[in-house]
Amino acid sequence: MKISQEQFKTMRSGFFAGILVGLFLAAINSFAKIDTSSWFMTWIYLPFVLALTVAMLPFCVPYLIKAFKQILFPLGITTIDIKLPGLGSTKLDLANPQRAAARKIFLEMTTRTVTQPLDKDTGTLTAAMSSLYDFFQIVREELKKMPPTPPGTDPKAETLESIAHRMMNEALRPYTSRWHPRLDTWNQTGLVETDWPLHEQCRHDLNRMRSLAIKYANTLGEAAVIPNINTFVPEDPYPELENSQIDPAKKQEFVRIDTLLQNAPSVEHRQIAWKLAVEFYGASATIKKDFSDPDAVQEVLISFDKLAGSLTWNTSMVLPTPGDNDLDELGLKVLTDIEEYRQKFFEKQPVEIEELQKWLKSKGDAFKKIARQGIVVD
């Protein structure tokens, strides 16, 4: 045990004070002619023991007080009654380090979108998701720094560790697991968040998660003895909510839209489809001359060569994946149709301008439909 300079001075003063008190008591004992076993016992042993005892008091008293407190208040733990979503009424054991950690977690919760409403005009789901992940890291760090909760008198009582794990795994994680990969996929399209077909569903689910988080925030506020908790915690949007499952009233629509988005072609394939759609629309708009003119026929054949070359080149630039077969099948069908039109022109079979314009536009529409998959849901 390391002794500070102040403690050494106190110990030295106590030692000499103990000797003086011991000698004084020994003198009284001698003059009173009280029988003692020996001269050594009266004048040497008793003053030394008394001096040593007085010198050690500054070190012993704090430990004696601590031990006394632990006898009166076992391990410094207090127990409070709480109510948790999905668990109901239970008890929570807390010591001072756990109260301090609960306070820090409470302050983080009540200043983030974990509990605070997300404004439609200014807040984004991407920022909210990032804030949630930061909160996970903060809670983990606080639990690591905090000493384990000592065992209390009730083995069934909750601890701050168990509440934090329950909050993260049962209230927050289901939301992030469900929506983070879907939101990330949408962000890869480069389109604004509000155009996402699942945008409203994701915000609705965020409010349901907030409802569960608010219930935990109230519990942590009570554990940390935060005064006026309601001034920090917003109103619970779903007071009766007990689990993190998706809203049953919206589940069917969620499954329908999510299935369409999951089966949509990749971003690369949609980009190629849109490029081809523009090219076919452009080819349709440039055909204006009657095919009785050889120059007009030559222009059409050149246009066909360009379209076929662009189609072959672009579709070969990306590997097909599940859900991308629509582009490949459409490309093969278009190449077959182009070859049939070429044959007609070479054999000088009649071809109407309106017919060819209509065909080019229909293929542009088909490529456009593929490009819109995963972006627009009807």
Overall description:
- With 378 residues, the chain is mainly alpha-helical.
- Helices cover 66% and strands 4% of the residues.
- The protein has helices spanning 5-31, 39-72, 96-109, 125-145, 160-187, 199-223, 248-262, 267-286, 294-315, 325-346, 353-372, and strands at 78-84, 88-94.
- A hairpin with a 3-residue loop joins β1 (78-84) and β2.
- Residues 70-75 have low confidence and may be disordered.
Q: How many structural domains does the protein architecture include? A: 3
Percent helix: 55-70%
| Cα-atom radius of gyration | 40 Å
User: How far is the first residue's CA from the last residue's CA?
Assistant: 75 Å
What's the number of helices? 11
Low-confidence sequence ranges = 70-75
Q: What's the helix-strand series? A: HHEEHHHHHHHHH
Shape: rod-shaped
- Which structural class do you get from the secondary structure elements? mainly alpha
Please summarize what this structure is.
With 378 residues, the protein is mainly α. Helix content is 66%, strand content 4%.
Strands, helices and their partners?
Elements: H1 5-31, H2 39-72, E1 78-84, E2 88-94, H3 96-109, H4 125-145, H5 160-187, H6 199-223, H7 248-262, H8 267-286, H9 294-315, H10 325-346, H11 353-372
Antiparallel strand pairs: 1-2
